[in-house]
Amino acid sequence: MVTVRDGKEAVVSSSNSVSNGRADAAPDYIDELRQRYINGNPEMEARLGEARVRLQLGQEAYDLRTQAGLSKEQLAEDLGVSAEFVSSFENGAGGGNPDDYLAQLREIVGKHGSGAK
Predict the structure, then answer these.
(1) Which of 6, 9, 110 is nearest to 58 (CA)?
(2) What are 80-90's pLDDT values in tens digits?
(3) Which of 30, 36, 97, 103 is deepest in the core (most CB within 10 A)?
(4) What is the pTM of this model?
(5) Average pLDDT of 37-43?
(6) Superfamily holding 53-117
(7) Nearest CA to 92 among 41, 55, 48?
(8) How do the domains of the chain map onto residue ranges?
């Protein structure tokens, strides 16, 4: 499993060890699974691409929020959503229109100042 936080990829193996930024640490079975279920399957390749985009948008939202010094709860209150929604969006599972969410987030961050605490 690959997760992204603070712009770094972390490859997590079945033993739960993490190797930051080292693609060569991914076990061979990940490549086998990719070849078996994703490569050559347009639907799965599209879903993987969409998941990558959601993760990138979530990372951008996280970066904006933390640079402004806002907690998830503070941002949620300003946006009129739950803290769980903010967390979900930052983790790449966000719902709604990501462009609208990020536009609102940028506006709120601008009001709070863009400098980190």
Answers:
(1) 6
(2) 999 999 999 99
(3) 30
(4) 0.64
(5) 87
(6) lambda repressor-like DNA-binding domains (1.10.260.40)
(7) 55
(8) 1-37, 53-117
